Amino acid sequence: MIKSFHPPLRTLMGPGPSDVHPRVLAAMARPTIGHLDPAFIGMMDEIKQLLQYALRTDNPLTMPVSAPGSAGMEACFVNLVEPGDKVIVCQNGVFGGRMKENVERFGGVALMVEDVWGTAVSVDKVRALMEQHDDIKILAFVHAETSTGVCSDAQALCRLARDYGCLTVVDAVTSLGGIQLEVDQWGIDALYSGTQKCLSAPPGISPVTFSERALSKVGKRTNRIPSWFLDKTLVMGYWGEGQQRAYHHTAPVNALYGLHEALVMLQEEGIENAWQRHALHHQALRDGLEAMGLKMSVAADIRLPQLNSVSIPEGVREAEVRGHLLDAYGLEIGAGLGALAGKVWRIGLMGTSCTRRHVMLCLDALENTLIEQGADVASGRAAVAAAAVYAGAK
Length: 394
Hints:
- The protein is α/β, with parallel strands linked by helices.
- Helices cover 42% and strands 15% of the residues.
- It comes from Marinobacterium marinum.
């Protein structure tokens, strides 16, 4: 007979999901009510307000899609891309490739700007391509590339798009809550994110926001949006304003309780304080890793604090290291993807997983594991280096 599932207790420091705070788990255990219940509708309005706060936007169409970040991505492209539209897609990692898939599946023409994995999107390459075409409709790029740990200059790319009269679609799945993200100030037109990274809510929900410029393009479409579920002209009847809501789908009620609580916690901390917290613990982790003898694989000026890409030392059996960390310490870190498979580890410091306890556990566990494997690392220095960062921050 199959029995109830009881997951093992893990410390999640991979590329996501991150640890979920007990307050969020407790919120999700509250009684389920109807998705059109007046009390639930009141909470929906609060979620919109809290997302606007987190995203730094006044966009009325700011809401959570009832599906993971990949559906948020599809929601942006399916609403904005029409057959024949030229879309510049920037790829410097795995997730730019998924943008290309979306553009082409919805009939658009993807013009690729490709950069080496581990480097930022080249603003100059984007500008050069825009100068070659006077009919670009959208510029799409990943702000925080989860597969590499690289941050691209969203502000500069959005300014360039405005200069050339096109919209922007931005992947902020790993950005939101971890680094500066300014939807209105930077002029982002459509953005999607996820709940399982720096918000520390469970996976399965994707915050999105659309500017008035983006909605204008949606309103002027000459053909029907090819997805019923993700059609924003329909779903806003449910996520609109006031108590009268049109039924669209049965929202994931308890999952939205969790998102609401996670966003309340972010508001309590303060969004800028959250950015500073991620920067501080990244510095401690980085100094500890470097004191141990390991190297960061991304240049400092484009490095994500919440997703740390670490070069694997020569001769180290990287999968065995990850396996031992999981078995002996209950600690999950991530492997490299695509071109970086077998070359890097990805260590997440996101949301509830971004604490001093997480940093010190990771350094201790990784050092011990590498020593057991015979790797040439400096013993006893990592914890001292990290502690010095914390001492200096007081």
